[in-house]
Structure formats: structure tokens, C-alpha cells
Specification:
three-stranded antiparallel beta sheet, two-stranded antiparallel sheet, 7 strands, 41% helix
């Protein structure tokens, strides 16, 4: 092969490789951002002390009042973005659906290789947010809450575990994996503080007890 032709061919290959990486072409491993880290236990304790303590009111709640899984980029919605972010070796199709990869659920320590076995948990559940003040929000603010990728509010977890959690707060439900509980309550308090949500008395007591052990 002539030397000049060989150089041109290598340059072309390099350019195509760079283009593929920059565009994240189909069936390649999906790039993932880091999962937001909750505030420290000390900061969470300070946040918790400032939260309003109030009873909960679910009057008028509907999940539809929190538009969720909105488009983030291209064909990827919020759920698919979290699946890529929280997974390992995730490969997606043209619709951004994960066709392979693995997901570790920090709530129970299980690892899954099918996206259908994974739910995206709203750490502070939508119903809990409504009970705590979101009923008075605008739809756009409820949408921002339901799709928040900046705070530690969305997390890929085992689907059955997410369903067993439902809309419970830390007074009645905590991850079975004890090593994650400190992270969980720090995240819970951070989200409630950021959005100005209240806590009920049992919830606050449970959070105080868990944070004391962090």
C-alpha cells in the first residue's frame, strides 16, 4: 500500500472513530453522568432542623399532575437517561431503550441485566411531595420535581423494591440494605429542603434517628 494512501486511510478511520464517540451512535455504550451525591450528614441535620413540621393532606392528588419522563435529549426521556446514568455498559437502540447493560440496586444490593427489572424511583415519592406542599405548586414546578436530574431524587432500583416502597416516607420504609440508609436519608432531607416541602412529626423523628447514626 502506498505510504500516502495508508496515511489518508488512517486519518479517515481516526476521524470516523472520533465522530462516532462524539455522537454516541447507536448500539454503542451510552455515556453516563455521575449520580448526584447527597449533602453531608451535618448539612442534612441542619436542613432538617429548618423544615416545617406539618400534617399531610392528599386531597386532590393525582400522579398525572406531575408530568414525568419528559424528553431530555434526542429520543431519550428522563427514565432512559437515569437508566444510562446508573447502569454499567449500557447499550441503547434508536429509541434510546437499553438493549443490554447491568444495573446495581443500592436499596437491596441486587444486580439486574434487563431494564424491565429496574424502576426509576422518585426518592421523595410524588404523592409524598403532594402531601407536603406540592399541591400548591404550578404544573411546571411539579414537572421539574418529577424529572429532577440535579438533586439525588431519581435512582434506578429493583422494580419490586420500588413497588413495595410505594409512597412511604422514612418513618415506615427504609432500604433493606443498611449500608445505604445514611445516603438515603441525607438525600431525602436535601430534596425536601430544596423544594421547601414539609415533614410530619413521625417522619422528622425517623430522619433524626437515622442521621444521628451517620
Amino acid at each position: 500500500m502506498p505510504r500516502l494512501y495508508a496515511r489518508r486511510r488512517l486519518s479517515t478511520v481516526a476521524a470516523l472513530t472520533a465522530l462516532t464517540a462524539s455522537l454516541g451512535l447507536l448500539n454503542g455504550p451510552a455515556a453516563s453522568a455521575a449520580l448526584p451525591t447527597p449533602v453531608s450528614a451535618a448539612t442534612a441535620r441542619g436542613y432538617l432542623a429548618s423544615l416545617t413540621v406539618a400534617g399531610e393532606d392528599r386531597t386532590g392528588y393525582s400522579r398525572d399532575l406531575f408530568p414525568h419522563w419528559t424528553t431530555v435529549s434526542g429520543t431519550c426521556n428522563t427514565r432512559e437517561t437515569v437508566l444510562k446514568r446508573d447502569g454499567s455498559g449500557v447499550v441503547t437502540d434508536s429509541a434510546c431503550y437499553p438493549t443490554s447493560g447491568s444495573w446495581y440496586s443500592p436499596y437491596d444490593g441486587a444486580t439486574w441485566t434487563a431494564a424491565s427489572d429496574v424502576d426509576i424511583d422518585h426518592l421523595v415519592p410524588l404523592a409524598e411531595a403532594w402531601d407536603s406542599g406540592a399541591g400548591g405548586w404550578t404544573t411546571s414546578r411539579r414537572q421539574a420535581f418529577a424529572n429532577d436530574l440535579t438533586r439525588p431524587q431519581l435512582l434506578a432500583v429493583t422494580d419490586d423494591v420500588n413497588q413495595s416502597k410505594g409512597d412511604q416516607d422514612p418513618a415506615t420504609w427504609m432500604p433493606s440494605r443498611t449500608a445505604y440508609r445514611c445516603t438515603y436519608v441525607r438525600a431525602w432531607v436535601q430534596v425536601k429542603y430544596y423544594y421547601g416541602l414539609s415533614v410530619d412529626s413521625a417522619e422528622k423523628s425517623a430522619l433524626q434517628n437515622h442521621l444521628a447514626a451517620c
